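Handout, page 2. Input:
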Amino acid sequence: MQPPVRHTSPASRISLELPASFELADEDPDAGTAMYADDLDDDADIGGRLLARMTDADGDDDALRAADAAAAVDGRRLEQRRDVVVDGLPGIWQLLTYVDHDLEVDVVRHETYVHHGGTLVSLVGLAPGKLGEVYLPVFDRAVASARLPRG
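Output:
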């Protein structure tokens, strides 16, 4: 197994480690996002995705409000939620499941939200439900390795 690769996107300003098979798929400096993807092959198989995003925040409860809003989307089921620490800062982690009707696939959604100095940090991992056992530990490690900009 290859060692993880540290990715740092100027768009999201978040640094994190992912397996070597993940690549930067897209980034948007205006939206403060970077999307990393693990494509399983050249066919239609879908692998894991991780979205790292930093946006302006209004208040200290933005992480909870973001988690509640994501869980309230019609068709999503909140499986688990707990408090976490990301780069020394308190946050919220939750696991959601739902069916993506466009792709006709069950999805696991691994979300972490952290309020940090006037910004909301979102780390959202997505994977087909059948590959949840493969990707959920990958997303856990990415969140544990995340480094947020200071100052």
